[in-house]
Amino acid sequence: MTVSVDSAALVAPEAARRRLSRLQHLDLAGLVVTLATLLGAVFWAFPLYWGLVTTFKPEYEVVRPGIALWPAHFTLENYGHVLLETKIGLWYINSLITSGAVTVIVVTMSACAGYAISQLDFPGRRFFWWAILASFMVPVPALIVNHFILMSQLGVINTLAGVVGPLLVYSPVVVIIYKQFFDSVPKDFREAAVMDGSNEFQLFFRIYLPMNWGITTALAIITFIGAWNQFLWPFLAVSSEDRMNITVGITQVHDAFGVQYARDLAVAMLAALPVALVYLIFQRRVTQAIMLSAGIKG
Amino acid sequence: MLRSKRIEYLTAAALMTPFVVIYGVLFVYPTIKMVEQSLTNAPLIGPGKWIGFDNFHRLASDRLFSVAIWNTLYFVVLSVVPSTLLALAVALGVNRLKGWTQSVVLAAFFLPYILPVSVVTAIWAWMLDKDFGIAQNAVQLFNNGQHLSIFRTIPMFMPAVAFVTVWWLLGFNVLLFIAGLRNISSEIYEAAGLDGAGRWAQFTRITWPLIWPVTVLVFTIQLILQLKIFDQVYLFAQGGRVDATMVMVQYIYKQAFQMNKGGLADAAAVVLFLLIVVLSVLQFQLLRARGAR
Questions:
Q1: Is the pLDDT of residue A172 over 80?
Q2: Which of A139, A149, B11, B29 has the smallest count of CB within 10 Å of its CB?
């Protein structure tokens, strides 16, 4: 008894001293890491802030030397100008229509296919599953030439339908996520509903879809953001300014004015506004959906 | 029983048809056509004559194509490695923060990722603008007090595009790493702490081995993604010496849509296609090997 008390008394101060020194050591290193992270975040966010704040400055102030973190003379004139003098309204509408169409088609079609692969037994089920997985290997930019030829054979080049078509290639990942979520619905629900005489369509629309509204919202949001942000295909598919998506249209503004920094940036900020808003409102859903699709591609 | 099986098949057919049609039209058919046309001298629109592997021989001797391949690989090295390592560092830092600070800091790193590419290039064209860009203050320090037109200086072009790309996409990698770090049980760290393992030992003995699979995932996703680079390079090079900074997808674009050589463009597309299929198979095997262990 006495022995153990003695050794504990001997050890305790030593351990306490060690812990204390480690604590001090830890705090310093930890503080440095935290400060570096915060600085990094400021550095990362700064270009966004700088781009935004520039749009509120009159052009003469934009080209003034020195760093003004806030406009001396706050103005919305740049936004007024681009809204009135460019086709940005039209590009907005084009982007909304095409991204909306892509979202509705991809989500609907993929939910159906995901349900069939998850819940139904039919010949070729495994084959389709492998075909979907294999599609991740296909580099979509390698297909641009033949997508273009196909769309011109269908006579939809330079139309909004032609923009939508090849953007549907991003559906396989949505099918897989739906399949996994439908797989995890307990079989009891299905059995109970079948006992009550429900058919497959009723099962799908009354049980499986409503139980997965959360994932439907998440998938719809990232499909929309993804379609809105596409550049290469909308850029190839459309040549007339009236049918351009906003991501393509804003790269054309340049030529029209010569260099007008604040106006160019105002157009860019307007193009980013919808996706930035959607992200800030649905932050958790967006990250959830991105994690899911990344996990699958891996 | 037989009747209900038939109904099940019909339901499945009804649900699968839209997807299968889209899949066939947008993946299978263009892929077959790509291979077929790569063996002809077809223009962009219209039929061509069968010329065997001539297009591939031409690619092999085309200086522009080898420039495009080298630029692509150079860009991949410049963007993939830094974005993977930096993302891990940021994730470790963000993971230490708590509550709303963590959300705000994470959002700061993530926000660029959800922006359209042309917005990203507009912001950075302004940041780096030769006359009035704020980043020229930093450029001056390394350029004898002179401003430098970054995207018109060939040796600066790819590093600058890679830098902007890392800025743009880092948030995605950070997100994956944070998810990986959260999967490591805090008990392991507590046990190691009791055994007297310091911060560095904890990182090398616990965090790094356990986060390694995520590192491989992030690295391979970025590798495959960046081989397909086009948008940023095209937008930043507009009006400059495009050929010197050409990348593979841009080469396909140029041959097909500017030179009207559909066959040659598709031959280049086949090369890119094979390159990425091989890498995807390797990635799949790598990740499956990890799963088996």
A1: yes
A2: B29
Contact map slice: B 68-87 vs A, CB within 8 A: none
Residues of B in contact with A233 (CB under 8 A): none
Mean pLDDT check: name the lowest of A214-218, B1-5, B70-74, B88-92.
B1-5
> What is the helix, strand, coil percentage profile of chain A, to 5?
80, 0, 20
How confident is the model over B157-182, as a mean pLDDT? Answer: 95
Of the residues A11, A122, A146, A238, the best mutation for testing chain B's interface (the one with the most B CB atoms within 10 Å of its CB) is: A146
Q: What is the pTM of this model?
A: 0.90
Cβ distance B16 to A116 less than 8 Å, yes or no, reads: yes
Q: How far is CA A9 from the centre of its chain?
A: 59
- Assign residue A57 a region: left if phi > 0, alpha if psi is -120 to 50, beta otherwise? beta
- What letter represents residue A276's amino acid? A
Tell me the two tokens of residue A183: 């797989």
Instruction: Kindly tell me the burial class for residue A6, based on how many C-beta atoms sit within 10 Å of its own C-beta (0-12, 13-18, 19 or more).
Output: exposed
Residue A67 has pLDDT above 90, yes or no: no
Cβ(B247)–Cβ(B68) below 8 Å: yes
ipTM: 0.92
The count of CB pairs under 8 A between chains A and B is: 262
Amino acid in the structure at residue B39: L
